[in-house]
Amino acid sequence: MRDPLSVLTDAFTSFLFGKVETTRLPVRTSTGQAQAVYLPTAAPGLGDSGVIIGREVYSGKGYIYDPFQLYGQQLPAPHWLVLGESGNGKSALEKTYVLRQLRFRDRQVVVLDAQGEDGVGEWNLIAQELGITPIRLDPMAALDMGIRLNPLDPAITTTGQLALLRTIIEVAMGHGLDERSGFALKVAHAYVNETVVDRQPVLTDIVEQLRHPKPESAEAMNVAIDDVRAWGLDVALVLDRLVDGDLRGMFDGPTTVGIDLDAPLIVFDLSHIDRNSIAMPILMAIVGVWLEHTWIRPDRKKRIFLVEEAWHIINSPFVAQLFQRLLKFGRRLGLSFVAVVHHLSDVVDGAAAKEAAAILKMASTRTIYAQKADEARATGRVLGLPRWAVEIIPTLTPGIAVWDVNGNVQVVKHLVTETERSLVFTDRAMTQSSAELADDALHAAELEAEERAAAFVEHHLGDSESTVA
């Protein structure tokens, strides 16, 4: 309650000078009328250089994204994580993104294709359209002179070969090598590299040396030869699986001659490998390191390394460590790593939580498609998404995703042109619901207009070369 002196003072002032304040009565109105008071606003986009993804849902503006154009300005790293449950548009986004990137002459893409139908990988149609033969890694085909990748390829440094051998063994065993087994492997590898000079060393040479170590290997550490043989026995048994087990034929010989590492698109078809077996992370480790030493070169090309089913990498501490090095090394040479994962909870709570956190931290771009509410909340906590984005993720319809580009968060509808549809939606007739087909019919005119706009951009920008390092 105000004191009497203040009331008296205000009354005297009002008498001399009039009221110093006026009381405005509240105004009652409708939201339709009041919306004119608050003009519509939209967050700034990512610029106009790069490839067209689609359009922002709330503003209707075109959404353009390119990690090579944004790197160093709006992106600390060019790596990208794509999340979401099956059937929401991840595959369509990846394929159109690659097709549009390949319109630039200084782009090159490698895809590890772990999914497929009818005996071929999911990227088979796109490869055929571009006149490219996928590199199909298949144990049965490899026995009949199929594709081979040699972990001891001379193109890989000696240090890289040993690191790759250790990773293969640790993934298969499910734990790290102890010092004695590691020593046996190191001396066997060193001996093979010194003595096999007339051809490419192969895994059979390593297995043979582990089973029958030379006396000088024991003398170097002043231990008995029988001890060195015992230390290397488990290692030999693991590598024997690649030589004479269920993975034989793919990695136990010289690298197949004729693999075109200069092609604009290189597809490794892993669809014949059981995705839930230990073979998949082993394959990814071998392919990743082989590419690191044979494909990535300081030639000013911008390279994209897209990995389907990437949880095989992020969920294995040994494979993740190899890919961490690849990601750090690749940033200096223009490499954008794209990891496609269904559920983030599969990896952040797994055995490789530390390594997974490091890889996720390097992914400055995150695209999240529809997830269940509890999964969306967990994803939001790990990735630091704003609350409004977390709340909207469970409500997203196919083709719409939350994009977080280094803190710039937008809701984006991915647009596919009619030209791309036959290459992107390979199983459309079997998987698309009647509601989605009806929606397609309603938007047919809209898509036609968007296709014309995309064709215009491709015509004027498609043959241009990126000038941003």
From TrEMBL:
- Show the InterPro entries listed in the entry: P-loop_NTPase, T4SS_component
Origin superkingdom: Bacteria
Which PANTHER family does the UniProt record give?
SLR6007 PROTEIN, UNCHARACTERIZED PROTEIN YJGR-RELATED
The protein here is known as ATP/GTP-binding protein
